[in-house]
Amino acid sequence: MMRRIGLYPTLLGLVALTALGLPTAAQQADEATGAPKAVVPQPVHDAQTVPKGQNVVHDFRIVNEGTAPLEITDVRPTCGCTVAEFDKVIAPGASGKIHVVLDTSTFDGGIAKTVMVFTNDPANPRFNLTIKAEVQPFIFVNPGYARFIQPQLSEPGVVEQLVWTSSFDQLEVASVTSPYPFLTVEHRPATAEERRAEGTGPQYVLRFVLDYEKAPIGTLAEYVTVDTNHPRQSVVKIPISGFVRPMVVVTPAEADFGDIEVAGEPVTARLILKNYAREDLQVQPGSVDVPGMAVDVDPVDGEEGRSFNVLVELGPGVAKGPFQGTIRLRTDHPKKPFIDIPVKGRVI
Fold it and tell me: How many Å apart are CA 153 and CA 328, to the nearest integer?
């Protein structure tokens, strides 16, 4: 009996605290060492059928069912999605949002794009949000992309695209915007021979011209934007890809002798010059502004006009101490008559 009676005050106390809405000692201890809890009521949003080029915009609701502030530490969208904004801290019992925008301009058919969300929830530190859609194009482009892979100073690169639709008989191309100053794009009505039989209304030819004399060396990865009057698809994006290569490449890029001793026999360094132009190239020694240094150029056997050995020689007459200068080679290319190679080192 004594043991049973001893339980009654404890039970009565718990009932009284609960009735008054006050936290129990266990709850107080939990809150003192509480943790956030991230809950996503709807982690997948299905936008269903979307016209190509239209953005899908959705706010994902995030609920904090924990007893400590929920921190969203990072949000990483996959290709095609951009996160415009999100609530970084969500109080216990409150909700926040992650605002996601999905650009459908470069997709066709069914897609599912994921956003990874990172939080301070120890039980759920990372979760995914997904936007699904069925992207329906109303304007078609053939071939639908433009790729340029020639070296600098080549003849202009030209790619033509045909634009048409089968769902609107009054199609007009209002404007075409190039992402690069060295890429021009013009449009004109397609001729009867160029038209696609399945198209209705006006059709257009876009002519892309890339100026390899003005284009810098590097990757091409942008979009040409076509604005139209189509009621279901006002914007068309055509991807530009490729790489503008250097016309010639010297390996290594400079003649670095480091610390050397020059006594008796000359010291020689060898570099390789590669020609990536369409036409063969003739290369001859030009000049070098380091006293006591000489340069010779020999075509690689079997690769005449394409590959060359550049031999740089330091003679015994080179003064001690650091040196730095430029080797200049001469070519027969009218647009690139000289090739400059830096040279440096120290005679000890």
Answer: 19
204 three-class SS: strand
128, 119 Cβ separation under 8 angstroms: no
Does residue 197 contact residue 172 with C-beta atoms inside 8 Å? no
pTM for the complete prediction? 0.75
Q: Which of 168, 174, 110 is nearest to 139 (CA)?
A: 168
Indicate the SS3 state at residue 25: helix
Per DSSP, what are the bridge partners of residue 34? none
Which residue from 249, 251, 272 is spatially nearest to 151, judged by alpha carbons?
Answer: 249
DSSP string, 250-303: EESSSEEEEEE--SSS-EEEEEEEEE-SSS---EEEEEE-STTEEEEEEEPTT-
Q: Token digits for 175?
A: 């404007």
H-run or E-run covering 16: helix 2-20
Q: Quick: pLDDT tens for 75-120.
A: 999 877 778 789 999 999 999 999 999 999 889 999 999 999 999 9
**CB 128, CB 116: distance < 8 Å:** yes
Q: How far apart are CA 202 and CA 189, in angstroms?
A: 7
Instruction: Check residue 146 and report its DSSP letter.
Output: E
Q: What is the DSSP string of 148-165?
A: E-PBTTPPPEEEEEEEE-
